[in-house]
Amino acid sequence: MKKIPVDEIQAGQRFSRPVYVDDDNLFVPEGVAVRERDLQRLRKWEVSTLFTDGEPISDDPQAAFNAFFLRAFNNPTQKAITAVYGNLRTTVLEIFGRIRGGESVEQDEINRVVDKLLKMMETQPNDVVQYMLYGMQGETGEVENALNTAILAALVGRKMQLARHRILVLVTAALLHDVGMLRVPQEILAKKGKLTAEERRQVQTHPVYSYKIITRDLAYGEDVGIPALQHQERWDGNGYPRRLARESIRIEARIITVADSFVAMVSNKPYRTSMIGYTAMRNLLSDNGTRFDPEVLKVFIQVLGIYPIGSIVLLSDSSICRVLENRAAAPLKPRVKVIINAEGHEFVDDDGPEIDLAATKNSFIARAVDANLLAERYRAG
Description:
By secondary structure, the chain is an alpha+beta fold. It has 15 helices and nine strands.
């Protein structure tokens, strides 16, 4: 973790990740403003340094993201998506910080986030997913996970032709499904070792907390609260908190379960690194009707593809490409953009040629590649 001198921290400042006094003592969670009395207490105790993996929250929505990945988003539409996502992230981070601190949040604030998210996806859904899976590369926290789950849930809801009002309910529930985690001690969520039975029990209460926050504190109806309450239920009846099964679980909850699981797998966690999208998709495919509704999972795979948009793949000619578009009729032959060609030339400005593998007989995907390896190559110069 990085060291931050206490003298450089100002009251009201927020950070993108939790800030600690030491390994065992949390100073402030991510998104929660530092109070002047907290700083005074540190000075009284003669604490001079704090520790965090995050950064001060910036007005620049690109500040926290790796330059290597962002350079792939350089046309006006893609830059607009980056800016809108960044603004949504800042807004949700502030909202979650207030919920965590027991402060009031108006329902309209959340409704505006949902409206902006859906508008962002109306014209360029592929670019949104590509940014989520490629531009962020697993560097996510609770806010990004909420936004990304909402994005994927919206795509599935649309593919299933849910009515507009039901998609609004679905996306709102997906955005808020894990707010109960804000009531779970940060020390438990950041723990790298195995949870104790009591710690696991506390984590498993979060759907109930989510339901209470949504329906009581935020005054949403049961149509939003119930999917959040049920998002940890399983198709086979072995989930929690009520061990519901199959169609007794709301369809919105079944969609959120798949989206949330995929997002969790492609996000870094204290106890493991993120998976690449292809591996996460294979894990979903191996479920065999245990956790997920098979029909929802089928739609999810149709929406994202076996190689999700933004995935990095190695072709049979040794060129490295990024997946741009999938087709349900040819899931193993997406449209791709070359990042490094077969001769080893890297297209620094993301101006490599595009290849439609469905129309190319001599090229096929050999395997998926961890994009972070490309980032390391870029940083090494």
